[in-house]
Amino acid sequence: MNEEAGRISAIFRAPIESLINEDDRTSAKSWVYDWEIPASSQRALVEWGLPTSFNLSLDIPRHAKTIDTPQDAADFGINAGKLYILGSWSPSGALSNEKIAGVEVGGGSVLSVDFDPLLSRSYPDWFWKEYPHHEIRNTRFLASSVEKLCELAWRWYSIWNVLDSVKLPSRPTENEVNVYFEKREMIHLAVRKEILAIDPSAIGKIEGRYPWADLIREIVE
User: Which of 9, 27, 68, 221 would bridge 132 by S-S if both were Cys, CB 3.0 to 4.6 A apart?
Assistant: First the structure.
């Protein structure tokens, strides 16, 4: 096992609490304990939270807001119902890519759906009242539970330290280039395997509908 493989294995074997950076964390308030989601997911929102770099702020209001479950969530085996709104999520940090992240009421799967951030910010009362009646498309599957989403996010947070250590010299030789891409491919395969071990549903076969698949692919692109 080379150095990078050993570091990745250590990250995925470590207790999640040891990976949490309190200076770079967003978490929910205690009123999510009233939500109709598994107790383990409630605790994860409050006690673990998410890295702020994940671009999903858990600034959840006391009075929970919900939206209708999008019709295309049926692609993931999720039928009509409601989603508690976790917050707005920008996977790339860009306003144009902003989405709503929501957790299934009475179930627990976490989805993201596209929405218009300019409308939601300019006309918040109108938007939240009318949004459930709009046609929503491009629903993506984030995790089978909030607990697994939080765990994946914190382990991914630590993986970036490994990726940052694998760099090309300013004037690489052919051998150095080959070694670089071999290491990145090894990291890609190892991380994919570990993520699937935590949440087998996090990476599916529908292209563009599973954000974790896209994030992992960036390792070798």
Answer: 68
